[in-house]
Amino acid sequence: MGRLLYGASRMRIDIEDRLLAHIEVVILSKLRRSEGFALSWVEPMDAGSGRRLVWLNPTAELVFEYFGSRPIEVDRALLEELSQRANSNGGLNLHELLGVSAGTAPSGPSSALQNSTPQPGSRPLSRSHRERTPRTAP
Q1: Closest CA relative to residue 75, chosen from 5, 35, 26
Q2: pLDDT tens for residues 33-51?
Q3: What is the reported pLDDT for 108?
Q4: 15 burial class (0-12, 13-18, 19+ CB within 10 angstroms)?
Q5: Helix 76-87 and helix 17-32: axis angle, to 10°?
Q6: pTM of the model
Q7: Contacts of 15 (CB under 8 A, 6+ apart)
Q8: Which tens digits make up the pLDDT trace of 38-86?
Q9: Taking the alpha carbons of 116, 97, 87, 112 in that order, is the dihedral positive or negative?
């Protein structure tokens, strides 16, 4: 289980490594284009529950932490789905994407998340690849 740390206070969002890698590509792509957007999720019960929303912009402090050290396969269909959600008026809503709270095992994920195995055309996401990932269409 990886995590996204946001802001000077290091607000923590626990996210499965594979999904976090895809969210990282989408977030960095939007921020490179100086596009701000909303990211929201529902806290698990043990963290007090409730919905949270943060506004991500190019000046936001973000840290992506991964539990595993292996490169993660990029699923182009999942990247496209996440990009479309991030470009929507509601922003990227992790609760809607997973069907459950961030930090818990998904029970009703989107079709792009149902397969944990890489899709044809996927490739490992390494640090150098993330820096060269082409823009996704808005």
Answers
A1: 26
A2: 999 999 998 877 776 778 8
A3: 32
A4: buried
A5: 50
A6: 0.69
A7: 1, 2, 3, 4, 23, 94, 102, 103
A8: 999 887 777 677 888 999 999 999 999 999 888 889 899 999 999 999 9
A9: positive
How far apart are the C-alpha atoms of 138 and 135, rounded to whole Å? Answer: 9
Looking at residue 99, its pLDDT comes to 55
- Report residue 41 as tokens: 């999720």
- For 97-109, b/e burial (b = at least 16 CB within 10 A) is bbebbbbeebeeb
Please write down the HEC assignment for all residues of the chain: CEEEEECCCCEEEEECHHHHHHHHHHHHHHHHCCCCEEEEEECCHHHCCCEEEEEECCCCCEEEECCCCCCEEECHHHHHHHHHHHHCCCCEEHHHHHCCCCCCCCCCCCHHHHCCCCCCCCEEECHHHHHHCCCCCC
For residue 79, CA distances in Å to 9, 10, 47, 59, 103 come to: 28, 25, 28, 23, 20
